[in-house]
Amino acid sequence: MIRPGRTRFKFCRSSRLRRASEFRLVKTSGKSWTGKHLVLAVLAREAEATSRIGIITSKRLGNAVTRNQIRRRIREIFRLNQHQIQTGIWLVTIARVSSATATFEEIRRDWLRLVERASILAPGSHGSHSPDLT
Question: Disulfide-capable partner of 88 in 48, 53, 101, 132 (CB 3.0 to 4.6 Å)?
Fold first, then answer.
């Protein structure tokens, strides 16, 4: 049971971009920002009720274990920070080769920096401040 005043963190299938056409739409119609470990492409979709994310990890990053580890890290970063992002935003996060050797904290800082540069934080949220988790 969730206590009153506590933020609920979830990451269900409806929060993911799954179709190639959705990834293509973000790439062609959206705008992108490049960081040290990640590339973030953003597309505003007013008709959407929630924000959604897609993650791309190419074989240049390493073997399947490495790629899955990077995907899990990015999913966790999105899951913990999705309440700070405006509704109706589609994000595509592309892992760069340097993300294979980066720590979770380095990837988190890079992702949050890109989100701030993209100006998609919801009004009232201030960067990486965490909500009441008590």
Answer: 48
